Amino acid sequence: MLSYAVLQPGARHHYAVPAVLARAGSLAAFYTDIHAEHRSLQTLARWLPGGLRPPPLERLLGRRLPPGVPRQLVRDQPLATLCRGDSAGLVLRRALRERFAGAEAVYTNFVANDLDAVRQARDWGLKVVHEQFLDPAAGRLLLEEQRRYPGIEPSGPGEATVERELRRSQEKWTLCDRVLVPSAHCFETAVALGCDPARLRIVPYGVPEQWFALEPDPQPGRVLVVGQVGLRKGSHVLARTCRLLQARGLRFECRVVGPQLVNVSDPLFRGPTYLGAIPRSQIQQEFRRADLFVLPTLAEGMALSALEAMACGVPVITTPQCGSVVRDGVEGFLVPIRDAAALADRIEQLLADRALRDRLAAAARQRALEYSWARYGERLLAALGSIGA
Questions:
Q1: Which regions of the chain does DSSP assign to beta strands (E)?
Q2: Nearest 10 degrees: CA dihedral of 340, 313, 138, 281?
Q3: 136 burial class (0-12, 13-18, 19+ CB within 10 angstroms)?
Q4: Residue, of 158 and 22, whose pLDDT is higher
Q5: pLDDT by residue (tens digit) across 151-181?
Q6: Domains of the chain by range and CATH?
Q7: How confident is the model at residue 387 (pLDDT cuts 50, 70, 90)?
Q8: Residues 199, 177: contact at Cβ < 8 Å?
Q9: Closest by alpha carbon to 28, among 126, 118, 101, 121?
């Protein structure tokens, strides 16, 4: 197999891609911004005990590289990232400056700002793989929702910017040897927007094996949501669902874990209990104690949180746009986007019918075993294997 330079700002999918390629002996370099193993962060961690660390530092310390990624292959820039904040630009500029560390191929999972790097890689004769980790129509869907609820979120990109980024993505697809997507929904959207199906491969994400060692301890009536609080995630739909259930007299608690893009004291979001962003170890405990997992998202690639819930034996109620591997009526339920009444009905059904809830929970955990990190690695290498042959 070809040698790859992986370009990835942030800890997406817990650094699974460089880990898989390193184990296969195909990682030439991993270009990233900042991670927990860097000396500067380790020094801060030693100086500040757990209770004194600010939340941003605690989250950065959660960005742990998998042990299989050789540190000599990691090209990071922590100080520049902390001082300047342009993590994506720093990653791309260093990769270009170093000519992708002499790799034979480039693996990139940016949104649209890596187009120039992709062009340059092709000019230098390299193969290119792009991971389309988010529904390509997400920008349009979010813009539509922001028009429905003006002023709820900070002003984001306007229509001209959304369409320009989509055109850049479409051009990038034509330059790539492979475009990887995590779900059938993402595949269908990419094809509808002009991506050649012959270039596309579906590679569903996986969950680290340690998740299967967690012992479920569901608290009856506890509904869990993990993800950013905002319009794209359907947080306003969730809140309306909670108010509908409260009006029906249902006894339950809805706990929302994740950073907040919106003012949760706004009446639009009244209903759930918002915990904010919490450390990874605490999130696992939230999954263990959840009775149900809910994610009424409008657009995803494949929501890893839904898979993590399944690994913990928690039934999932979500939308087809989630990209989840949940099958309707088998491991949980699928409801249409923006449909608070349908979501409320399914939550009420599972909280009332314990036998059904337990049956779906067992099926969810069994289904999740098909989507471990090991299986993800097999699928990823299979999708990359024929490139350059």
A1: 4-7, 27-31, 74-75, 105-108, 127-131, 178-181, 200-202, 222-226, 253-257, 273-276, 292-295, 316-318, 332-334
A2: 110
A3: buried
A4: 22
A5: 999 877 889 999 999 999 999 999 999 999 9
A6: 4-207+373-385 (3.40.50.2000), 209-371 (3.40.50.2000)
A7: confident
A8: yes
A9: 101
